[in-house]
Amino acid sequence: MTVQHDISLVVLAGILCAFGSWVTSRLYRHAGNRPTEHAIAWHLLTALTAGISIWGTHFVAMLGFRPSVPVNFDLPLTFASLLIAVAGCAVGIVFSASVKLRYASAIGGAILGLAISGMHYAGMIAYRVRGLVDWDRGYLVASILIAVVFSAVALTLGRRDGKWREYQMTGVLTLAIVSLHFTGMTAFRISPLDISGDYVNPEAFKMLALAIAGTAIVIVMGGLFSYAVENRTRMESIVELTAARNAAESASRAKSEFMSVLSHELRTPLTIVLGYAGILSQINSAQPKDAAGNPVQLHEGKVGVQAELYGQKIGTAANHLLTLINEILDYTSIELGDTKLTRTSFPVSDLLAATKDQFQVLAGEKSIRLHTECDDILVHADHRRLMQILINLVGNAVKFSGASDLHLKARRETDGFRIDVTDNGCGIDGAHIEMIFEAFQQIETADKRSSGGTGLGLAICRKLALAHGGDVTATSIVGEGTTFTLTLPESAIDGAVTSAATKVLGRALRNQKARPALPRAARSGVPGRGQTIVGG
Ligand code: ADP
């Protein structure tokens, strides 16, 4: 029996199929990038778009099919085929998006392929012809397999990253729908009951096809429109957020610059105040001199012990103010990126010994025992800045912890080294551990407030450590004490010693074969006890 097609309707079906597949692909990829709470709605919209465009394609193509015998449609079954398309696409797409399986996209795609096949064959059953219908099983099975495989590939491509994935998914999905349709139609054989041969589809079929294609396109456009609106809103919020972030960054920079200039300006008069406070504090006991070395004329008779006391008080306050200003200046210059590290090579033991020296007197006054212990590490870093970090950590422990013992330990690690400053003092509550690393943050208790400070010390320490590629962290148990750890990366270690350490390790490993009971330190790649410098 001769079968003809209304070419204009076949073209219309093709356009609907390609357009629907493209919108489906775009929505599918968009849905995959949405936060979980929005993703499900976007996946369902994708399924609706896919189902309607696939069904529309099929139905328009069927209206363009001219088998030379009178045809009709079973409306309830035709409508059921639409439901099968939409529901099946929803199951496949939601499965591919929500099931945590390696091949979830492919399985979801296969479900979608089965849904398209189900829709197609339900539609074919709804297609009534005056003749005997026969199915070629080979083509029938092949059409289903084609739909399943192509759809699985399409959804898998749709989940992958890449500029052209959307178009690849569009192409493969279009191919799945078109191949299923034409292979399925090849399986469909009609033997007419009366061979009049002069039947043509009624004109109403064309109108119906146009109406269905138009409706499907409007629905698909609705999906595209929702995507465009959301995308635009999202882009606008990204632009707004970027602008807000840039504004905040430049405001923060302006603040840092202002603080920096202000601190510089405050420092000059403060130095003069300090100078005169120095003169005043010795007014009764010494003959002070001015900056040029000339004796200052005093009125001993009128000023005496009281003035000296006032001078000392002014000096103490001004010194405190100077420390504060210096810290602000330091912090802002690090924030502005004006600080350059001057790296030199020095043994870590020097660093610990110098820190210990600085605190010997103060620790003695507070009956704190200072202990140092370190591996043989040749550091390659900014000595002054590392000293600054350690002085701050030890100073804090002396000021705030109320400890009786303070340990400074430098240890080689596989990827660098660490210095622990451990006290057995009051400890810090877990809720405050991260807060104290923020600028101007102190733990507010009546007794600690009296210890002064700016709350900038640990913030500066962390920034200096970060500038070296490391970090400062803290662990603490309230009532038992705190450990502040400065970690520095391999780049902060002098290469000469690194290779020496490697040789030591190599030798140790060779010896291990001969002598199994090797000290633990040598086994872990850390120099053994003999190389550890211990002080106390
Ligand atoms: P500052 O020393 O200027 O107060 P820091 O940033 O150096 O500022 O320290 C922040 C706060 O952390 C201190 O005010 C103190 O309350 C707390 N702190 C720091 N080190 C210790 C420590 N070893 N034991 C207990 N509290 C500490």
TrEMBL record:
It is an enzyme of class 2 (transferase). GO terms for cellular component: plasma membrane. It is found in: Cell membrane. Residues 5-191 form the MHYT domain. Residues 261-492 form the Histidine kinase domain. It comes from the Bacteria. Residues 515-536 are annotated as: Disordered. It catalyses: ATP + protein L-histidine = ADP + protein N-phospho-L-histidine. GO terms for molecular function: ATP binding; phosphorelay sensor kinase activity. The chain crosses the membrane at residues 6-28, 40-65, 77-99, 106-127, 139-157, 169-188, 208-229. Keywords: ATP-binding, Cell membrane, Kinase, Membrane, Nucleotide-binding, Phosphoprotein, Transferase, Transmembrane, Transmembrane helix, Two-component regulatory system. Signal peptide: none annotated. This is histidine kinase.
